[in-house]
Amino acid sequence: MAANYSRILLKLSGEALAGEAQFGIDPAIVQVLAQQIKRVVSLDVQMAIVIGGGNIFRGIAASSQGMDRSTGDYMGMVATVLNALALQDSLEKIEIQTRVMTALEMHQVAEPYIRRRAIRHMEKGRVVILAAGTGNPYFTTDTAAALRALEMNVDVLLMAKNQVDGVYTADPNIDPTAKRYARISHQEAIEKNLRIMDTSALALLRDNNLPILVFDMAREDAIELAVTGDAAGTLVAAGESALY
Q1: Is residue 81 a part of any domain in this protein?
Q2: 196: domain CATH number?
């Protein structure tokens, strides 16, 4: 297989690490994910990963129950670091050099995020896992993924979804007539409120003309298929929309 991209950013939800338990970290799931990443790296693809923390803690959910929003968001950032360290451990066990970089300084376990250093790590073939979001409350990991993707000059942002194989005209779990887009523009996705990611993150990517590939993580070769252009997902990019 040949890769369509030379440098990518993969956005993973925290739930992707939880498996069927939907909470915490399932080591078997992380190992499968690590093997996928190893195969992608073998295609000479430079790779960064932004990972969420919803499998451990959600700041928004906590704030709705009375917790201070900023405190809840910082706790959610720490949860993403736990996920990043778990993924790093699995990758290094299969001999993939990995660096965890955090927006909150945690010198004992990770490097602080520095753009030029992160790019240099990727140029040397290391997988860079970016944790702690943007380091600021009120911003989600979607926004962090959009920001880091632009900072690191990637070719595409890969949005890995759980049990959703692309962008639909409506929620396919509610509307059985919903159809999947093969391609849609950032602007149309915003206007139709299709909830690919946070609107602010999507607008940032639109303004800088960075494509997004939305695909389902269900298959064990899902990331490889996305990188080689064989994934049955949706490309979000400038141009005319098209349905499958």
Answers
A1: yes
A2: 3.40.1160.10
106-141 pLDDT, tens digit each: 999 999 999 999 999 999 999 999 999 999 999 999
Q: What angle do CA 88, 230, 131 make, to 5 degrees?
A: 25
Map residue 98 onto helix, strand or coil: strand
In a domain, 1, yes or no: no
The length of the chain in residues reads 244
Q: Divide the 244 residues of the chain into consecutive groups of 10 and give the mean pLDDT of each group.
A: 94 89 89 96 97 86 83 94 97 98 96 98 98 96 97 97 90 89 96 93 97 93 92 91 91
Residue 130 lies in a domain: yes
CA 130, CA 141: separation in Å to the nearest integer?
10
Spell out the alpha helix ranges (H) of the chain. 27-41, 59-63, 69-93, 115-123, 141-151, 186-191, 199-207, 222-228
Find the domain containing 157 and state its range. 7-243
- Distance from the Cα of residue 225 to its chain's centroid: 16
Count up the domains in the chain and report the number: 1
